[in-house]
Amino acid sequence: MRHCAKTLTVAVLLAIGIASGALASGMTSSASSAVQASGSEFRIGLSRNQVAPSRLRLEFVNYGEDDHDLAVRRVGTSLVRNLGTTRPGDRAVKRFTVRRGTYLLWCTLSDHRARGMKATLKVRKSS
Amino acid sequence: MARKKKKSKSKSVKIPVYTGKFGQKEVERLLWRAGFGPRPGDIKRYKRLGMKRAVASIVSPKRKAQLVGPSPQLEDPLKPNDIWGHDHIWWLDRMVRSNHQLEERMTLIWHDWFATSNDGVGNQKLMIAQNEMLRQKCLGSFRGLLYNVTVDPAMLIWLSGDGSDKRSPNENYGREMMELFTLGAGARYTEDDVREHARALTGFTSDWNEDDGQHNFRFEEKRHDNDPKTIFGKTGNFGWQDSCNLCIDHPDHAAFFVQKLWSYFVPVPLKGKNLKAFISLYKRKGYRVRPVVQAILMHPAFYKGPAMIKPPIVFTAGLLRAQNAGITSDAWAWLSEQTGQRLFFPPNVSGWDDDAWLDTGRFRGRWNVARYATDEALLDPSDNKDAKNWDPEETPEQAYKNVMNFWGNPTVNGPTRAVLMDFARKSGQQADSAKWKKKPYRVMRQNAMRTLLAMSPDHQTS
């Protein structure tokens, strides 16, 4: 019993004392922007529809009941970025640089785009 | 005769005021229940004021609200509209740093009362806007608050008011307005009243396009059912404001309101003469919230009654406030999910279930919160800076004193003190079992005791 108590004490000490798990306390960057895209059946809503040219943090949150993904392409280019398939309640994040222009966002799964899962993000200097 | 009757009526509506000792224990209760716990120096300051002035300063602060202390330092700059979890962090930061603590606590109460979840809204921006509205209206007229809630875009989405028109009136909002917001389940209303309210509440709509998403929430006369409706036995061409007014003026409303509001502050039911007195006060003051809250915070039952379990988010904010610490991680969003109270995501329209605050799963979340809350101040047993200067002969009593100082010397009951001292003694024996253990083990003991005190029954309740 005494041995158990000692072991327990050491275990608590070790668990609480040693496992410090440093928290991320990070730098901030003024040349960054963030947009959240909320997806559901069958819409994509953006937290803002315009940002300045910057390093963009694009987040997709699936508030729907089906799987969805989010593809992004700048009009006039062929590069398509995809944040990957997210399950209901999940989210995905991608960071990339956005330049002046218009970006199209859509869900590539099934006929979701045709049913309305699309949005437009403008990148303008004035925003 | 009539005059006599009036006199005796006014006598029966007097609300008792607490006149007992206003010491550390009472101040702690006031600051935990009307806010998010004391910051260093608060206990002394409020004790000096005395109960009435302390309550007055909390209920009607003179200066504008300010955020005091270190602002959040996160990996990404705080963007409550644009980043998952930053909505939660944004409000938690206000709970930790606002010098208008009651304002934040009342906003939390209204968030629970008019529980709207982003699970159904899917738009952090609208949730933040609703939160700002609740804060702005938190101590004013309940009638005004209900008006604002009724036309709030997040609520219009959440309870299907958006798109409800004369051809297909939606019953969700009308039903919850009576059952959860103004009258209570079992009050004197019928299914017909639900249907007629739904008709009165028709006409709200919004637009959608792929540039702006859902926007332009508005009331359109042509979508509204303009035919007469009969609600609570009264007939008229009622609209949404009439619908709100009919609920507020319903004979069951005032009792429901004061009892529900009381239950957020005092864990024993409001009944009998006290109930009548509060109903009278609420009506006399024109359905304003502030005088009712003030009377609750000065009531003897508030100070003499049993302890209440601190809601998880109150517990969390309080741990940071006690250390004058700021937010340095967005982990608080998922940690709060573990504790069962992720802001902007109440489980359903009836709000959080207080009976589940300390169930086994959520209690584990509180352990994690306590660990993270002390993380910035965590002592490193292997680091020369912390262990080097630690007293290798620190006694259990000194260890206890140090941990009490860390948390601002909160009230601790005998059994909690005994358990902590027992732990301090036993771990001290471990530390003394080898020379090299003396300092680092005592440092680890201090880290452990900080978490243990935070998790003690005394600290889970107020």
Break the fold down into its secondary structure elements and pairings:
The complex is a heterodimer of chains A (about 130) and B (about 450).
Chain A: H1 2-18, E1 32-40, E2 43-46, E3 50-51, E4 54-62, E5 71-74, E6 80-82, E7 91-98, E8 101-106, E9 118-123
Parallel strand pairs in A: 1-4, 3-9
Antiparallel strand pairs in A: 1-2, 4-7, 5-6, 5-8, 8-9
Chain B: H1 2-12, H2 24-33, H3 42-49, H4 51-59, H5 86-97, H6 101-113, H7 118-121, H8 124-136, H9 142-150, H10 153-158, H11 172-182, H12 191-200, E1 204-209, E2 213-219, E3 229-231, E4 234-236, H13 240-248, H14 253-263, H15 272-284, H16 289-297, H17 300-304, H18 312-322, H19 331-339, H20 360-373, H21 384-388, H22 396-406, H23 414-431, H24 438-454, H25 457-460
Helix pairs in contact in B: 5-18, 6-8, 9-13, 11-12, 11-13, 14-15, 18-20, 19-20, 22-23, 22-24, 23-24
Can I get a quick summary?
Chain A is mainly β. Chain A has one helix at 2-18, and strands at residues 32-40, 43-46, 50-51, 54-62, 71-74, 80-82, 91-98, 101-106, 118-123.
Q: Can you give a write-up of this model?
A:
The complex is a heterodimer of chains A (127) and B (462). Chain A has 127 residues and is mainly beta. Chain A has one helix at residues 2-18, and strands at 32-40, 43-46, 50-51, 54-62, 71-74, 80-82, 91-98, 101-106, 118-123. In chain A, strands 3-9-8-5-6 form a 5-stranded mixed β-sheet, with no helix packed on it. In chain A, strands 2-1-4-7 form a 4-stranded mixed β-sheet, with no helix packed on it. In chain A, strand 5 and strand 6 (80-82) form a beta hairpin. The N and C termini of chain A lie far apart (68 Å). The model of chain A is unreliable at 1-30 (pLDDT under 50). Chain B is 55% helix and 4% strand. In chain B, the strands form 2 sheets. Chain B has a two-stranded antiparallel ribbon. A two-stranded antiparallel ribbon of chain B has the order 3-4.
